[in-house]
Amino acid sequence: MTKRQNRMVLVALLVLGVSLTGYFGIKAFNDNLLYFFTPTDITESKAPIGKSFRLGGLVVTGSVIRENMNVTFSLSDNNKTIKVSYEGILPDLFREGQGIVATGSLDGDLFLATTVLAKHDENYMPPEVAEALLNSSAGE
């Protein structure tokens, strides 16, 4: 091989390496994204099945059932309601009628939460929940 051919092979390998690195980086980024959905989105089948995502809304009053470390409650966006199951210790600020964001996945009609986040003071609501509630109220 000549010197020119060696350089062309080196350039081709370099371009291939950069392309593969970019592809795997973007694929890993997309696999780790957590999209936000409301109970209405889930009942309209917009949420992915078997993939993790965020669900936000208000905890329905009178829906919280505690059995040891397992808590089941309903979450609403003032339009539709979905049942949520969570095993673990809930945040101290978790209560009925409050806005929360849960991370987890769907199992049929049940949302299996792995993380539950509650508001941190009386005036705060996660922006995604506030927007979803505003949109669902405007549609009525």
Output the CATH homologous superfamily of the largest domain: Nucleic acid-binding proteins
Main β-sheet description: 5 strands, mixed, barrel
Q: State the strand order across the main sheet.
A: 2-4-5-7-6
- Any idea what the shape is? elongated
The proportion of strand residues reads 25-35%
Strand-and-helix sequence, N→C? HEHEEEEEEH
Record the SSE blueprint.
Blueprint: H1 3-31, E1 36-37, H2 39-43, E2 53-59, E3 65-67, E4 70-76, E5 81-87, E6 99-107, E7 110-118, H3 127-138
Parallel strand pairs: 1-2, 5-7
Antiparallel strand pairs: 2-4, 2-6, 3-4, 4-5, 6-7
Describe the model.
With 140 residues, this protein is α+β, with helices and mostly antiparallel strands. The protein has helices spanning 3-31, 39-43, 127-138; strands spanning 36-37, 53-59, 65-67, 70-76, 81-87, 99-107, 110-118. The protein folds into two domains: 1-33; 36-138, Nucleic acid-binding proteins (OB fold (Dihydrolipoamide Acetyltransferase, E2P), Beta Barrel). The protein is 33% helix and 31% strand. The protein has a five-stranded mixed beta barrel. The chain is elongated, with a radius of gyration of 22 Å. The mean pLDDT is 84.
